[in-house]
Amino acid sequence: MPTLHPAGGTSRARVAALAAAAGLLCAGGFAGLAPRQGTASSHREAPLISGQPQYDNTDVYAFVSPDKPDTTTLIANFIPFQDPAGGPNFSKFARDARYDLNVDNDGDSLPDLTYRFRFHDRLKNANTFLYNTGPVTSLDDPDLNFTQTYDLTLVRRVGGQVRSTHTLAGNAPVAPSNVGKASMPDYARLRAQAVRPLGDGTTSFAGQADDPFFLDLRVFDLLYGANLKEVGNDTLSGYNVNTVALQIPTRHLVTGHDPVIGVNSTVSRLSASGAYAQVSRLGSPLVNEVVVPRGKKDAFNASTPWQDAQFAGFVTDPELPKLIEKIYKIPAPPGPRKDLVQAFLTGVPGLNQPAHVRPAELLRLNTSVRPAAKPDRLGVLGGDKAGFPNGRRLTDDVVDIELQAVEGELLGKKNDLGDAVNANDAGFGTSFPYVAQPHSGSDVRGARKPGTKAAGTAGRGDGGKVNFLNAGATESTSGGEDGTISLAPVAAAAGAGAFLLTGGLLWLRRRRPSAGRHES
C-alpha cells in the first residue's frame, strides 16, 4: 500500500492526510458491505426511496476540474439501474421535484448556495407510442417526440434564510435517452448540444449518462459469497442514470480566504398540500447505505446536515467490521472508533476542514488542491490528496478505499481488501460533463465479447487467484520496510475525535437553528 507524501513532508501535513483517509473514508460509508436492502452508493438505500427511483440520489461527485483548474465540477446522479432498452417510457426527471446541489462555504452545515433544477415535459404527438418517430439528429428535431427542459435557479442564503434567487437558465434542453443506433445515429452530437454555457462562467448539463459507480454488488450475498469467490464483476456495468452537472468558477463557490466547501445533493417532492418535502439526501458515498441502520434510513433522507448529531453513534461503532469478522474471522479494530469522528463530521485540519466548522456529514472539498497529473484510484490512501475523501472524482475507487480503511489500514493493520473492480466499464470524458456516454438501447446490456473477462478480474501478477482479501492490492507498495503505516497520526486523530465526542457533539446537540434556518 503506498504511503502518503504530503506537500513539504511536515509531520502536521502527514497527520492531516492520514487522518483524512482514516476518518471520512470509513465513517463515510464503508462501501456497501452490509446485507441491507440497498445495493450501491445510495442506489435503493432506504425503504421509502427504493420505490421512488425518480427522486433517488445515487451518487454525488465534487472535484477541481482537471482541464479547467480555476473551476469546480459538481455532479449528482439519479434514477438507478436504468436498462438502456427500457422504453417506450424511458427514465426521465420528475416534474414534481426540486433537484438541488447544495454548497456550504462557511462550515456551519447550512447551505449558502443552492443550484436548483426544475424539469418540464414536452410531448409533440400523443397519438403514437414512440419516443421518437424517426432518426434524431438534433435536440430540436421534430422526430424527437418527447423532450424535457429545465430551469436552473441559484438560491443564496445567509444563516439558512433565503436572501436572493437568480435564474441562471430557462427552458434549457435535457439530453434525451439513448434509444438506439437507428433512432440516434450520432448520440454524442446530441449530448454535446445539451452542454450549455450560462454566461457567468458556469456551464450546465442535464441528461442521461452511464452509471459511473463501479463495484461488485454480490457483497450482499453474505459479503461476496462468504467464500472469497464472488468478486470481479461490475454489477452496474451497462446501466444508465440521469445526471445533472455544473462546472462553476471556484471564486463563485468559496468565501473569504477559506477554499473548503461542503457539498451534498437533495431531492424534494411536491406533496398534495402544495409544499415540498425532502425525500432523498446524499453527500459522501454509502453513508445511508451501511452506516445508518434500517430503522433510521428514511429519517436520514429527510434530515439536514444540521441535525447530524443524532447519527454520530453509528460512526463510532460501525457495523461493517463486525460483519467481516463474523464471516471471515478478520478481527475488527476495537471501538469506539474515535479516529473516525473528526474527519467524518468536520473535515481534517490541513486537508479539508473549514476554518469555522460545525460537525455535519458533507462531501468536503478543498478547492485549492490542484488536480493530480496521474490520479491514483485510491485517492488520499494512495498518496493523491486531490482524491477521495477530499471531494470525490469519477475514477476514485471508493469501495477498495473504504474496505481497506475500515479494516485498519491506517492503524498499521495492512490489508488489500477489495472487490476486484478497479475502473468503470465505460471511459470517462476529458472535458465537462466528464461522465461517460449512456449505453445505447440497441446494445445488449452486460454482453461481452467471447474470451473477455469481467471488469477487474485479471489475475494477480504472481499468478494467484483474485479474491476479497487481495482484490484491492496495488502493483507496488511504499513506506516502512514492513509496508505498514505509522500509528502516530492515528493517535493524533483519536485525540481530536475524543474532543468531539466529549465536547463537540454535546455542543452540537444543544445548539438549535433559528426558525428561518430550515427555510428552503
Detailed description of the structure:
This protein is α+β, with helices and mostly antiparallel strands. It has a domain at 53-411. Helices cover 18% and strands 21% of the residues. The strands form two sheets. Strands 3, 4, 5, 6, 10, 11 and 12 form a seven-stranded antiparallel sheet that branches. It has a five-stranded antiparallel sheet with strand order 1-2-9-8-7, with no helix packed on it. Strand 10 and strand 11 form a beta hairpin. The relative contact order is 0.21. Residues 1-41 and 476-519 have low confidence and may be disordered.
Structure characteristics:
alpha+beta, 7-stranded antiparallel β-sheet, 5-stranded antiparallel β-sheet, disordered N terminus, disordered C terminus
Question: Concise description?
Answer:
This protein is α+β, with helices and mostly antiparallel strands and 520 residues long.
Record the SSE blueprint.
Blueprint lengths: L10 H17 L29 E8 L6 E12 L14 E8 L8 E11 L22 E13 L2 E13 L13 H7 L2 E2 L5 E8 L11 H4 L14 E10 L10 E11 L5 E7 L4 H4 L3 H9 L9 H5 L3 H9 L9 H9 L16 E4 L31 H9 L81 H23 L10
Antiparallel strand pairs: 1-2, 2-9, 3-4, 3-10, 4-5, 5-6, 7-8, 8-9, 10-11, 10-12
Largest sheet: 7 strands, antiparallel
Number of helices: 10
In percent, how much strand structure appears in the residues? Answer: 15-25%
Order of helices and strands: HEEEEEEHEEHEEEHHHHHEHH
Query: Which class do the helix and strand fractions yield?
Result: alpha+beta
